[in-house]
Amino acid sequence: MSINPDKLKFFSFLLFTKLEGAVTSGMVHLGDQLGLYRALAAAPQPLTTTQLASTTGLQERWVREWAYNQAAAKLVSFLSLRSQPPDLNDDTFFLSPEQIAVLADESHPAFGMGMFHRLPQTMESLKRMPESFRTGLGYNYDSHGPDGAVGIERSFEPWNNANLIPTVLPATGMVDRLRNGVAVADIGCGAGGAVLRMAREYPASNFVGYDISHYALTRANERLRDSGLTNAHFADPRSEPLPSDNSVDFVCTFDCIHDMTHPLTVMQSIRAALRPDGNWLLVDIKAHDGFAMNAEKNPMASLMYGISVLSCMSSALSTPDGAGLGTLGLSEMTAENMARAAGFTQFDRLDIDHSVNAFYLIRP
């Protein structure tokens, strides 16, 4: 077998771009955890690494190498005087408005540090994966520890905080009913952000968030105590199940059905919980039918399949009989077929723009 030297060079380069991304992701985690992005965002002018180190209370030599990585990766902007010979203070670093939004502003819907927050825990899963590949058994989200729950919170809440009340809920037709007072269940509620946001906005309604992650529930209950809200509650469905008497008016599932070991059983429980005129808002990862379409249409497909192995599919296979849908396993057709198998008769895709998620309104 002959090897084309040009193709060999290109493939070697392609491989090491993946390693560059992994290593730079680690530097992004450090920039977030050490407050380096926030310091750059708050600075009125570009900073030298000496100034950035002083502002953050860190050692300049370490900050310098981090800044060089970030600027070379085009994640942080820089200016250079290019003096001869080069001087330490030649290079100054800053964040553009767009970089601030993604790297440093937790209130902006484009804030992107959540997945990087939990990066060490996600990559730690690599040590467990060989056994999973041999046995078929994965690990639930609590295997990522408390920082795993916080990372998910930081991943989804910036967009939800900006869009859930003004954009998503009006599309469901539930706003008037929420204002008048209804029973709401958020299944897979995580750290409780959506429950608390809705409970604050609609004090006449009652909200229950369900999750099986002890770390997420602990975080949710801490936030509930701090909020002072009295119309919200968090529960583990294994000890406090979802009602099965058709008494719930509105059910939400945000980015969690594909992670579940028994998603069809959960859908059947939702059907048993909902009133005849109730609504289920299903929010899940945009996916196509089959690998070829995902690879062609989704520029982040490789990332999502990898995260699936380390997190989503691992959770969905954390019991011996788990369904194992995975990150890109709940396409619109799959979701509709499963919803109808669970007893629902109406399935509609909502016209809501999101870079990652699809939104469906499902009715009995």
Report on this structure.
The protein is 50% helix and 14% strand. It is α/β, with parallel strands linked by helices.
| Structural class label | alpha/beta
CATH superfamily label of the largest domain: Vaccinia Virus protein VP39
Reported by name, the CATH topology of the largest domain is: Rossmann fold
Q: Which architecture of the largest domain does the CATH hierarchy give at level 2?
A: 3-Layer(aba) Sandwich
CATH classification class of the largest domain:
Alpha Beta
Task: Domain count, please report it.
Answer: 2
In N-to-C order, the SSE pattern is: HHHHEEHHHHHHEHEHEEHEHHHEE
Total strands: the figure is 9
Question: Could you estimate the helical fraction of the residues in percent?
Answer: 40-55%
Distance between the termini: 60 Å
- What fraction of residues sit in β-strands? 5-15%
Unreliable residue runs: none
Instruction: Please give the order of strands in the largest beta sheet.
Output: 5-4-3-6-7-9-8
Global morphology: globular
The mean pLDDT is 96
Number of alpha- plus pi-helical segments:
16
Radius of gyration: 23 Å
